[in-house]
């Protein structure tokens, strides 16, 4: 597992081999594409502090090989991005549980739409 000094988050080892355009193309903010826009907008407002961790997670859901590693990295990155604030640690755990138990559809759809 790598670490991005510029983003201050953990990244998969293949992160720098993927073009920036490919990363941006799969980033949709917080929540899966099939959520209504207003819910994703709300989640983006709640998780604004974890945007870099969410970006890594979105890219992993499109190009990664392990859903559990993507989900665990999301948890670690959200905690890092949240600065160990108790409220943000709890929100990180909630986000982790959500993707762990309900992220299978987004994982499959991400892999169907990856470049």
**pLDDT under 50 segments (min length 5)?**
none
Structural class: mainly alpha
**Biggest β-sheet, characterized?**
2 strands, antiparallel
- Count the helices. How many? 6
**Overall average pLDDT:** 94
The count of strands amounts to 2
Tell me the number of structural domains. 1
Task: Encode the helix/strand succession as letters.
Answer: EEHHHHHH
Euclidean distance between termini CA atoms: 23 Å
Helix share, percent: 55-70%
Identify the overall geometry.
Answer: globular
Residue share in β-strands: 5-15%
Strand order of the largest sheet: 1-2
Radius of gyration: 13 Å
Give a written overview of the molecule.
- The protein is mainly alpha-helical.
- The protein has one domain.
- 63% of the residues lie in helices and 5% in strands.
- It has helices at residues 20-26, 37-46, 51-63, 67-81, 86-102, 104-113, and strands spanning 2-4, 9-11.
- Strands 1-2 form a two-stranded antiparallel ribbon.
- A hairpin with a 4-residue loop joins strand 1 and strand 2.
- The chain is globular, with a radius of gyration of 13 Å.
What can be said about this structure in brief?
It contains 6 helices and 2 strands; from the N terminus they run E-E-H-H-H-H-H-H. By secondary structure, the chain is mainly α.
Topology:
Blueprint: E1 2-4, E2 9-11, H1 20-26, H2 37-46, H3 51-63, H4 67-81, H5 86-102, H6 104-113
Helix pairs in contact: 1-3, 3-4, 3-6, 4-5
What descriptors fit this protein?
mainly alpha; two-stranded antiparallel ribbon; 63% helix
